[in-house]
């Protein structure tokens, strides 16, 4: 199964003050306490994998447009991931519309959007931890009426699997400048990994991760 579902009670902190035992049922440690090395390593591997995807985007755009690296940076600057995807889509509509419209092409681009949506949470949202888990909380939300909807818990194994999935996807992404057969093959490999491993559910469906 690509996604796992988690019990909301497991991810709530109890009311009251005092330290929490990350190994026990009491709840999560806040990041005020030093984050354990396994959690830091999982986060670091995932962020590094996202950087590799970003680099692949720039190389792909440079190749499709025949731009030198310096000129490419001057033209594109440092756009957000959503802007990168939008610009690549526009370029592919002109340079390689058949790959863009193919099932493989659509799968890879949607996979990049999914990976980057998790990346935005990992990089920008407040976190707490317990053994084997990281829990993110959207503390800048405008509406706190449904707090379960703001919680995004991730198992360390899920985050590590997502890093590996990002590795498959960034390779496939490069084949937008190759043959359709190559794009199809690496898209197939990416999907095969996704279908056979547990990964975090898309953030827009975070409410489904918790059975309140």
Summarize the structure.
The protein is an alpha+beta fold and 212 residues long. It has eight helices and four strands, in the order αβαααααβββαα.
Q: Tell me, briefly, the overall form.
A: elongated
Helix content: 55-70%
Number of helices: 8
Number of strands: 4
Radius of gyration: 19 Å
How can the largest sheet be summarized?
4 strands, antiparallel
- Mean of pLDDT: 82
Terminal Cα span: 21 Å
- Beta-strand content bin: 5-15%
Query: What's the helix-strand series?
Result: HEHHHHHEEEHH
Low-confidence stretches: 15-25
* Helix-strand makeup class: alpha+beta
- Strands across the major sheet, in which order? 1-2-3-4
Topology at a glance:
Elements lengths: L7 H4 L17 E2 L6 H29 L3 H8 L4 H15 L1 H5 L1 H22 L1 E5 L2 E5 L13 E5 H19 L5 H16 L17
Helix pairs in contact: 2-4, 2-6, 2-7, 6-7, 6-8, 7-8
Written overview of the protein:
With 212 residues, the protein is of the alpha+beta class. 56% of the residues lie in helices and 8% in strands. It starts with 7 loop residues before the first helix and ends in a 17-residue tail after the last helix.
Keywords:
single chain, 212 residues, alpha+beta, four-stranded antiparallel sheet, 4 strands, elongated
